[in-house]
Design goal:
The chain has helices at 2-15, 44-48. By secondary structure, the chain is mainly α. The longest helix has 14 residues, at 2-15. The radius of gyration is 27 Å and the shape is flat.
Length: 80
């Protein structure tokens, strides 16, 4: 029983040690130069945002319900 309590305490301790501070560059490093035309460099949160080409939104509606498929004239059986 003590072993289970120890494992539980260890798991709770590890779960609680996440970083909650703002992201900063490592010691001795700097953030990248600002993009062309920007007046000031981007902060860490702005650098982590994905641009639209990296994570595009869906442009087509997915089928939400089962629909009967139309007859496909090109769906032919294989030739023997």
């Amino acid at each position: 029983m003590k072993r289970i309590a120890l494992i539980t305490a260890l798991a709770l301790t590890l779960a609680a040690c996440g970083q909650r501070a703002q992201l900063q560059p490592a010691a001795g490093n700097e953030l990248p130069l600002p993009p062309y035309g920007a007046s000031e460099p981007l902060d860490a949160e702005e650098l982590l945002e994905l641009d639209p080409q990296a994570a595009p939104e869906r442009s087509v509606e997915l089928r939400r319900e089962s629909e009967e498929r139309e007859d496909d004239p090109f769906d032919l059986p294989p030739e023997a």
